[in-house]
Design brief:
Elements lengths: L3 E7 L3 E8 L4 E8 L4 H15 L4 E6 L2 E3 L4 E3 L12 H8 L4 E6 H12 L8 E6 L3 E7 L2 E2 L14 E6 L2 E4 L5 H12 L5 H9 L3 H25 L3 E5 L6 H15 L11 E3 L6 H14 L1
Parallel strand pairs: 1-4, 4-7, 8-13, 13-14
Antiparallel strand pairs: 1-2, 2-3, 5-6, 8-9, 9-10, 11-12
C-alpha cells in the first residue's frame, strides 16, 4: 500500500493542507481559515487529520523561528499563540500520536522548490520569499542549513535604508506590499501591490517612485546574497514571482545598480520559483522524509 502523509502549511490567515504520496503527488487538498486561539487551531488540525484517512505522519510548515529538534516555535509571527508552547507534542496528540515534523515556512518553500521545482537541477540555491515581508533560505550542497540559532538566511532582517523614526530599516521594509502602504498613506487611499504597479505604468509619478524603490532594494538584497552565499541561482518566490514584468524589473534593477561598480563582475542568475503555494507543503514533506532517513 502506498504511504500517505498529511502536510500542513500554517499561515497568518489560513491552514492549507494536502494528503501527499511519498513522491510528492497531492492526492487530496484544501484550506481553512485559521482559528483565533490555540485550542481552536488544534481542533482544526484534528478535524483535518480525521478526514485524511490512513497516514504515516504529519509534516508542517510554520512561520517564526521553528526549532525542529525541540518541537517549539520561538521568535514572532502573525500568529502569536503558536510561540513558546510544545507545538510538536500538541499536534501529535491531536493526530493519533503520529510522528510530527515541522520547520520554518521559508525553509519549507526552499526544500519544496529544491526537490521538485526550480532548484531540482542545482545544489547551491538561495531563496528569497517575498510577501508582506521577506523570508529566505539557503540550500548548500543539496542540504538545508538553518544555522546555530535557526536564523541563517533570515534575509528580511538585512539592514537597508538607514534609520527612520528610531527604527532600523531592513529589507522587509521595502516590499511591494509596504510600498503600496506608503503610497496609500500619502494619498489617503487604499491600494495593493498590483494596483500600485498599475498606477506606475499609467504614469503616476509617486507610484513609479515607490515601485522603483522596491526594485532598488530587491537588487541590493540580491547583491548581498550573491556575495554572502555565492549560489548557483537566486530563486524568487511569493506572489511577485508569478509576474514576469516584476521579475524582469528586478533583473534590470540589479544590472543598473552594479553597472560600472566593483561588484559588477559577479552576475547572479535570478529566477522565479515554480511551485507557488504548493512549495511549502512539498518542502514540509521533504523535511519529514529526510528526518525519517
Amino acid at each position: 500500500m502506498e504511504k500517505r502523509f498529511l502536510c500542513l502549511d500554517i499561515g497568518g490567515t489560513s491552514i492549507k493542507y494536502a494528503v501527499c504520496s511519498e513522491e510528492g503527488q497531492m492526492l487530496d487538498r484544501g484550506k481553512v481559515t485559521i482559528g483565533e486561539d490555540l485550542d481552536t487551531f488544534l481542533d482544526q488540525v484534528q478535524q483535518i487529520y480525521e478526514k485524511a484517512g490512513a497516514i504515516e505522519g504529519v509534516a508542517c510548515s510554520f512561520p517564526g523561528e521553528v526549532h525542529s529538534q525541540e518541537g517549539v516555535i520561538h521568535g514572532i509571527s502573525a500568529i502569536p499563540y503558536i510561540h513558546g508552547c510544545p507545538m510538536r507534542d500538541l499536534l501529535s496528540k491531536r493526530c493519533g500520536a503520529k510522528k510530527v515534523a515541522m520547520l520554518n515556512d521559508a525553509n519549507a518553500a526552499a526544500l519544496g522548490e529544491a526537490w521538485l521545482g526550480v532548484g531540482k537541477d542545482y545544489k547551491n540555491i538561495a531563496f528569497v520569499i517575498v510577501g508582506s515581508g521577506v523570508g529566505g533560505a539557503v540550500i548548500e550542497n543539496g542540504e538545508l542549513y538553518p544555522g546555530t540559532t535557526m536564523n541563517k538566511a533570515e534575509i528580511g532582517n538585512f539592514p537597508m535604508g538607514g534609520m527612520e523614526a528610531g527604527e532600523l530599516l531592513c529589507w522587509s521594509s521595502f516590499t511591494l506590499d509596504k510600498e503600496a502602504k506608503k503610497y496609500s498613506k500619502k494619498h489617503q487611499t487604499a491600494v495593493n501591490g498590483k494596483e500600485l504597479m498599475d498606477l506606475a505604468e499609467a504614469g503616476d509619478q509617486d507610484a513609479a517612485a515607490c515601485v522603483a524603490e522596491f526594485y532598488h532594494y530587491m537588487a541590493v538584497g540580491c547583491v548581498c546574497i550573491q556575495f554572502a552565499y555565492d549560489p548557483e541561482i537566486i530563486a524568487i518566490g511569493g506572489g511577485i514571482s508569478e509576474n514576469p514584468k516584476i521579475m524582469d524589473g528586478i533583473r534590470d534593477a540589479y544590472r543598473e545598480l552594479v553597472k560600472g561598480q566593483q561588484q559588477e563582475y559577479l552576475k547572479p542568475t535570478i529566477v522565479a520559483c515554480e511551485k507557488g503555494n504548493d512549495a511549502n507543503l512539498l518542502g514540509a514533506l521533504d523535511f519529514f522524509l529526510r528526518s525519517e532517513r
